[in-house]
Amino acid sequence: MTYILKPQLHHPKLAANALGFTRRDYEGSVSTLCAGCGHDSISAAIIQAVFELDLPPHRIAKLSGIGCSSKTPDYFLGASHGFNTVHGRMPSVLTGANLANKDLIYLGVSGDGDTASIGLGQFAHAVRRGVNMLYIVENNGVYGLTKGQFSATSDKGSKSKKGVVNHDAGIDLVGMALQLGATFVGRTFSGDKEQLVPLIKAGLAHKGAAFIDCVSPCVQFNNHAGSTKSFDYVREHNEAVNRLDMIPGRAQINVDYAPGTTVKVAQHDGSVLSLHKLAELYNPNNRAQALGYLQARQARGQVVTGLLYIDPEAGDLHDALETVDTPLNELGGAALVPGAAALEKINAGLR
């Protein structure tokens, strides 16, 4: 239960990151979700990603809405800033917080109901404005808190636990994010830790609107035959577009080798990376290609996972608004009150 605190005792041989924190230092309260819930796997991946990135917990702000997914921020980063908003309104609160203090790292956690139904407009405007955040949707295709009704992301033709067929077309949040202008778009599966952790790390390090749609089966209401969000279905239809790793920014390493060949490249930490160039490579820097690839694979019944699109030169909302370098919440009265002369100049320009 959430009111039962985890033991604070740490094993003396637990690995520590560059800040001296162990993985346990990034945990939260005890989860109250169903045993086997995919959301708990996502929480564990977030903990692992932040630990490996050496991020101080007090520099992270985690926000959520309403639903099973929006309960999860209580289960990770217990020493971080947190805000649980009302249903579907997390993006607006996150946007306001980001405008006030751009020095924090913003992590929005939501669900398919919270984002694709009541919060669809909120999601759309936060993404198109380029708010600097990582927005994770824990997508199980049902309303788990209200006994498993179809959500807006449920695929047409999928069946509920009671055998009811969904006749409505599902909303593809990845396709929407691409069309709305998100500069980092990925999809992954809660049961694929090797793909999930690097995606989260890269999303947290990205400047701009980063979005990850994480298929996360509901073991209670949406993990049966006929569901397109179950563990078995996603594993059988998973089409990964790339193998992922995330390396923090350092001096550039350049290689040049022909398609179909393999080359070994020494990394900054002394490790050696073996690269194999396929004859046909997926290009995550082409937004139009990403949309076309996504739709073509969907027509084959495949769930495309991996990093689908990234703009390495992306900016954010603060760049568009040309805000000052100092976070707005740190500005004093002299900076915030321009005076009568400045106000008169502004008014004159509007006449």
Query: Strand pairing plus helix content: what structural class?
Result: alpha/beta
* Largest sheet descriptor: 8 strands, mixed
C-alpha Rg (nearest Å)? 22 Å
Principal-axis shape:
globular
Element-level helix/strand string: HEHEHEHHEEEHEHEHEEEHEHHH
Q: What is the average per-residue confidence, as pLDDT, rounded to a whole number?
A: 85
Please, what is the oligomeric state? single chain
Identify the strand order in the major beta sheet.
Answer: 2-1-3-4-8-7-12-9
What is the number of helices? 12
- Poorly predicted runs of 5 or more residues: none
Strand content is 15-25%
How far from one another are the termini?
61 Å
Helicity level: 25-40%
Number of strands: 12
What does this protein structure show overall?
By secondary structure, the protein is an alpha/beta fold. It is 30% helix and 17% strand. It has twelve helices and twelve strands. Helix 1 crosses helix 7 (193-205) and helix 3 (90-100) runs parallel beside helix 5 (120-128). The longest helix has 15 residues, at 38-52. The model has no long low-confidence stretch (mean pLDDT 85).
